[in-house]
Amino acid sequence: MCKLCWTVKLKQALNPGQRIAILGVGHELRGDDAAGVLVARELHTALPAHDNLLIIEAGPLPENHTGALRRFAPDVVVLVDAALMQAEAGAVNWIDWRIIAGGGPSTHTLPLHVFARYVEDEFGCTVHIIGIQPENNALLAELSEPVQMAVQSVVGEIVNWMGTPPV
After folding, report:
1. Domain covering 18-159: architecture
2. Residue 34: exposed, middle, or buried by beta-carbon count in 10 A (0-12, 13-18, 19+)?
3. Average pLDDT value for residue range 90-119
């Protein structure tokens, strides 16, 4: 598996001038499942605020943030979440939400593919998922080192790609 293929997909999916929403999804009390939330939190600090970017720490209920998405009117929504991909802990992958329909267990109330379909249909935008392979999603587990490194990698790539606000 190409370790940086997801970065190529990221750069292909995001274009200057688009309205981009990034939602960090996951449960902070379940160890590595917090990866998406931590990515969003660090992006809040690392990226300059501008009109074409919305970052949301969505937690385990991304559907609770559809009002903010509606007001923002994104062209692209990127969901960042821990994902069981049968890879080594900390692996990052670009996931087509259409292929996870009917997938396995989830820590979310609404399965992510259902949320993605709703967002695309309702807001006329494109939805993508960046998945981070967890090592341990046990209740009250600490964030593992491989997942912490993956969070830093995802944040770094997004900041490098989107770091400067459009003029």
Report:
1. 3-Layer(aba) Sandwich (3.40)
2. buried
3. 79
